[in-house]
Write a structure and sequence with these properties.
alpha+beta; 2 domains; 3-stranded antiparallel β-sheet; two-stranded antiparallel sheet
Length: 192
């Protein structure tokens, strides 16, 4: 219960300090907590452990070492033993990103009809199946991206470094390219 009281105090303090609505502050804090859990889960799925895992969690989430250690322990306790976690995980990540790509293709057709505007909105194509955040992309960049099955447009901070590299940065989004091993999974999932 003390944690709930502490959380409410933090939300009230942040809302007062920023002038934002307390409900918006609470929602932003919850989204940040979910993002940190996603990062830890992805790193664990990729096989990172011990000091290397903690270092990556600290760098990617902004948590201090004690908070990172506590979050890692909590997430490790939920791990299910799996004989081959990396291929299963890579396939799931690829499937998530392909689903977002397909949704974006339908969205672009609905937005544009016959003519393609200079800029339009698509959904982030990150591996987080719960992400539904929009980004604005240039039509030329979108067309280039669609020709490259191993590349996806994601919001900054939504990269999954265990399976992809950032190949280009733009204001408001980045282009990631899957690692060679993961590209094979993409061919199974999206055989265009």
């Amino acid at each position: 219960m003390a944690s709930d009281s502490s959380d409410r105090d933090s939300v009230a303090w942040l809302a007062a300090a920023t002038g934002d609505d307390p409900a918006d502050v609470a929602a932003d804090l919850e989204k940040g907590a979910r993002r940190r859990v996603f990062v830890v889960d992805e790193l664990l799925d990729a096989g990172f452990r011990d000091g290397e895992l903690q270092e990556l969690v600290i760098r990617l989430t902004g948590l201090d070492s004690g908070q990172a250690r506590d979050l890692i322990r909590a997430r490790e306790a939920l791990l299910e033993p799996s004989p081959a976690p990396v291929p299963r995980r890579d396939r799931r990540l690829a499937e998530n990103e392909v689903r977002f790509r397909q949704a974006n293709e339908e969205r672009v057709r609905a937005q544009t009809g016959e003519s393609l505007p200079e800029w339009f909105e698509i959904l982030c194509e990150c591996a987080d199946r719960d992400c539904r955040q929009p980004l604005t992309i240039a039509a030329a960049e979108y067309a280039w991206l669609r020709e490259r099955r191993s590349c996806f447009a994601v919001l900054p901070g939504h990269e999954a470094p265990a399976v992809e590299d950032v190949v280009e940065r733009f204001p408001g989004y980045v282009i990631v390219e899957k690692h060679v091993e993961t590209r094979l999974e993409l061919e199974d999932v999206d055989p265009k």
